[in-house]
Amino acid sequence: MNPRRSWLILPAHDPAAVTRCQEFKPDVAVLDLEYSVPPRHKESARAGLEKLVRAVGQSETAVFVRVDRETRWADVRAAMFRGIQGIVFPGPEEPGEVAELGELITTMEKEQGVDPGSTELILMLESAQGFWNAAALAGASPRVTGLGVGRIDLTMRLGPVPQGEFRLYRFLMTRALVAARMLGKQPLGAFWRPGSRGGVASGDMTAKAAREARLMGFTGCLCATPEQVASVNAGYTPA
């Protein structure tokens, strides 16, 4: 089974960037409808999803779509085509949100001829309430197969001083890890440090963040840039 170590975020409004992803061989291509897509391109990104899913799906790379929390209903409706493995849902806070999204996916599977029950849900926790409800969220739908740790929104909402190590981060990662392991979901997260995360992280810092997370029990994480894929794959692969 594909270990799904590297989850590469790809802007869904940029077909060239999406098709180039196969050069880097991520375990998962995450077609993004959230942060990486400017508001003026949202509609065109949704309209082009089916073609992108078919193009990427021809490789061994699994294809997921990351929806925007604020527009998740429209995003899920646009994303449901044969060939996607699942939906990445950022920022869930209440179990009812997850259950309702799972029900929408069930409806869309029927409408689009997708195999019933085959579409997964990956939850990315990004708020205090989300982490508090981690286990309840992960158990809210049988579609949930992964539980991940977000960083940008989480940091802004909790307000830590951006100096040294974010001391709450290890605690929150552990909370998400315990919930995921308890319920048999994949734990996703990397131990990023201030100044060494996302698109600014070097290959060495990316590998270190992944390696430290693997030692905690995590098995994969999101990649902000294609250049991070190799380092993430190495970090999550036991020596």
Write up this protein.
The structure is a single chain. With 239 residues, this protein is α/β, with parallel strands linked by helices. It is 43% helix and 16% strand. It has 11 helices and 8 strands. The chain has helices spanning 15-20, 42-47, 49-57, 72-79, 95-112, 128-132, 134-138, 152-158, 167-183, 203-216, 229-235, and strands at 6-11, 28-32, 62-66, 86-90, 120-125, 144-149, 186-188, 221-223. The chain has an 8-stranded parallel beta sheet. Helix 4 packs parallel to helix 5. It is globular, with a radius of gyration of 17 Å.
Keywords:
239 residues; alpha/beta; 8 strands; globular
Distance between the termini: 19 Å
Name the helicity range: 40-55%
Report the C-alpha radius of gyration, rounded: 17 Å
The secondary-structure element order is EHEHHEHEHEHHEHHEHEH
Which of globular, elongated, flat, extended, rod-shaped describes the shape? globular
The average pLDDT score comes to 88
Strand content: 15-25%
Largest sheet properties? 8 strands, parallel
Kindly name the structural category. alpha/beta
